[in-house]
Amino acid sequence: HVQLQACGGGLVQAGGSLRLSCVASGRASGNYALAWFRQAPGKDREFAAAISWSGFSTLYSDSVKGRFTISRDRGKNTVYLQMNNLKSEDTAVYYCAAGTSYSHIKEYEYWGQGTQVTVSS
User: Fold this and answer.
1) Phi first, then psi: what are they for 71, rounded to 5°?
2) Among 100, 46, 47, 43, which residue's Cα sits nearest to residue 70?
3) Distance between CA 6 and CA 29 in Å, rounded?
4) Which tens digits make up the pLDDT trace of 13-39?
5) Calpha distance 84→95 (Å, rounded)
6) How far is CA 61 from CA 47, 48, 117, in A?
7) Rounded mean pLDDT of 64-73?
8) Residue 36 phi, psi (nearest 5)
9) DSSP string across 24-41
């Protein structure tokens, strides 16, 4: 199976930037699409961004498109989320996930522990 470990969260002022990282490990980790989800206090978990493991395709939610960029380094088995122009509504716990189809956001199978992102005004 796939194990995921996220890091890079922290406290940042509105308008600032932050970069999240998630390392995927396990024998079959190279065959999975990777994604970022987030969960704000009192709200359900929501999709943010996804990338096919090949890197050929990406997908973003409307709320982050144009501000966030997802990328991956297959040599390091790592997925990144570059977050620019952060807003207070971006405050959430961010989770990385792995699945067989990058665009099937309800079918992600493996989850990391989450990392807290707090945006202050």
Assistant:
1) -150, 170
2) 47
3) 15
4) 999 999 999 999 988 778 899 999 999
5) 18
6) 7, 5, 18
7) 97
8) -120, 130
9) EESTTGGGSEEEEEEE-T
Q: Residue 102's beta-bridge partner residues? A: none
Q: C-alpha distances in angstroms, 93 versus 43, 57, 87, 121?
A: 11, 25, 14, 18
Task: Put the strands of the sheet holding 18-25 in their side by side order.
Answer: 3-7, 18-25, 78-83, 68-73
φ, ψ (nearest 5 deg) of residue 88: -60, -30
Q: Cβ(58)–Cβ(36) under 8 Å? A: no
Q: Rounded mean pLDDT of 43-66?
A: 96
**Do residues 111 and 102 touch, judged by C-beta distance below 8 A?**
no
The predicted structure's pLDDT at residue 75: 86
CB neighbours of residue 19 within 10 Å: 14
* Cα–Cα distance, 29 to 62 (Å, whole number): 28
